[in-house]
UniProtKB/TrEMBL annotation, chains A, B:
Residues 177-292 form the Alcohol dehydrogenase-like C-terminal domain. Its cofactor is Zn(2+). One of its GO terms (molecular function) is zinc ion binding. Gene3D superfamilies: Medium-chain alcohol dehydrogenases, catalytic domain, NAD(P)-binding Rossmann-like Domain. It comes from Actinoplanes lobatus. Belongs to the zinc-containing alcohol dehydrogenase family. CDD domains: FDH_like_ADH3 (cd08287). This is Alcohol dehydrogenase.
């Protein structure tokens, strides 16, 4: 089968690999219907994360179950499934509390057997990781279901962690797919005012369509001042951080009022938080790898009812064979998010 | 009047100063009935915080109102009052949300006009900062009411920030007065299991009397392992951090399960939190200077009903004139907390 592999920064190739098979009795193997390039895939692509050896790429996926292990009870061959990027048993105390992305039995989807930017994918803990749709979904819903696999689930978690809700003013730091879907989540959760921080016209437009009420183009101290100006000097009640740099984390914390909530979902790179500033900020800080599995049933339901349309973040669709161009387009900001069809 | 003043590390003197008067129309002046030495006073005493010029000491107090400004409506001369260490208007959005310690109109009680380790104290924003007891309290309740002014309010906030409650296992890092009263708060809030981390027999004893169910004497990685052993490998649901060092913050974060809550109330000294570790921890982090004013009405009520006895943290009582000995006793860990009688 074909699989996207990153050899070095800027060097992504699609090559032939063995098709994965069930290895543990709790595995499933799926035929990937759609996968995509993640903002976090750009960290190694840009040389910020090191690549020691060729890396199998892709951790966002939807597809049809081909085969399941002997201990898989709920997931069945032929079902259309959406999965999350970390696997989880979904039975332990951590999973039951809604933190499936920190399951002690966690195994990454991208492991020895493959990544999701491929024709087939082996998924550990199939019952605890995958959610089946009722019947085969309409083809036009596939991008939205794929978004649920990571970027929607992550933006949603950011909004939940930031306690976005009725009466709240929510600021969103980051205008990538996760930030934009954080806007959508905040809107859906009932936020009164949603301030998207973005300097790109195409992303501003989508943010407004997803429910943003204000756009702030400034960054850093100027951006923080703007947020304060829009909130009687207090700062936002809730801030979603969807970048993961030192600058974006401090921007998020400083844009939030004392007692407010920062939901941070950008993968931290080179971030160190100054203890005294955090202490005096009085904010709540919560985030990390999103427990997408917690939200999947609800998100799939909203998508199938066509109440949300998160698939709009995909502004470029390419065949899997052109994965390299998908990475380039996102790296050069020509594409918000690129969908790959095996 | 007499006032404790710190001139340099290890150098505390009680000297004559002018008695403070109402300076702003929202001020009150109180005759201090009892004050005390705070764990945070030991930072400059030990030379960890710098002292540029002689510092008026004391920010914990109870007393009787002598005089009020023209705009003070609720607080009246003759009332017995308990106040918090930061002042607050208690009318703005931040105060109304329960974060009076971050009021934009905040003024420290220790300012140009004096500190609480004195005979008299000027309190800005009297209506928003002070809470009067119904009538004069019994003399034996004064230590507990004084504790409410800071250490109980701070330990309580730590427990609330850590979301201690029914069914929860709560770990407490730090066995000073705040940590011990964090134990009391967790018990009162209904926690199922309370693990006090302490290496001192007298403090362990008080922790057990306040409601601790387990004592862990180990620190650092060994202490974290013990907490994990006691919680099926998952970590505590809630951890109260009541020290403020890099070691204690990391011990608190690492002792907490993913999705759990760390309430940190130790004043941060030299703390920098590693972003990636925090991201992967999946914990909620909340803390800062405790909004004592939020909790005062409830805490005063519990004390007057004799349902809690937080004054037991005071194991040494001295006349104000012997303040220097009070500092020495706490510095040398001969006293958990020292009460000063003007």
């Amino acid at each position: 089968m074909r699989q996207a592999v990153m050899y070095a920064p800027g060097d992504v190739r699609v090559e032939q690999r063995d098709r994965p098979a069930v290895a543990r009795p709790t595995d499933a193997v799926i035929r990937v219907a759609a996968a995509c390039v993640c903002g976090s895939d750009l960290w190694p692509y840009r040389g910020i994360d090191q690549i020691a050896e060729p890396r199998l790429m892709g951790h966002e996926y939807v597809g049809v179950v081909e085969e399941v292990g002997a201990e898989v009870r709920d997931i069945k061959p032929g079902q259309f499934v959406v999965g999350s990027f970390f696997t989880s048993d979904n039975t332990c105390e951590i999973c039951q509390a809604g933190y499936q992305s920190r399951c002690p039995d966690l195994r990454p989807v991208v492991d020895e057997s493959g990544g999701a930017q491929a024709e087939f994918l082996r998924v550990p803990w199939a019952d605890g990781t995958l959610v089946a749709t009722p019947g085969q979904p309409d083809a036009d819903l596939i991008p939205s279901l794929l978004a649920a696999s990571d970027v929607l689930g992550t933006g949603w978690f950011g909004a939940v962690a930031a306690e976005a809700g009725p009466g709240k003013t929510v600021a969103v730091v980051g205008d990538g797919a996760v930030g934009l879907l954080g806007v959508l989540a905040a809107k859906r959760l009932g936020a009164q005012r949603i301030i998207a921080m973005s300097r790109h016209a195409d992303r501003q437009k989508l943010a407004l369509e997803f429910g943003a009420t204000d756009i702030v183009t400034e960054r850093g101290d100027e951006g923080i001042s703007k947020i304060k100006d829009l909130t009687d000097g207090y700062g936002a009640h809730s801030t979603i951080e969807a970048v993961g740099t030192q600058e974006s984390m401090l921007q998020a914390i400083r844009s939030t009022r004392p007692g407010g909530h920062v939901g941070y979902v950008g993968v931290a790179h080179g971030v160190t938080l100054p203890g005294m500033e955090l202490f005096l900020s009085g904010v709540h800080l919560h985030g990390g790898p999103a427990p997408v599995r917690r939200f999947l049933p609800e998100l799939i339901d909203l998508i199938l009812k066509r109440e949300i349309d998160p698939g709009r973040v995909f502004d470029l669709t390419l065949p899997l064979d052109e994965a390299a161009e998908g990475y380039r387009a996102m790296d050069e900001r020509r594409s918000i998010k690129t969908l790959l069809r095996p």
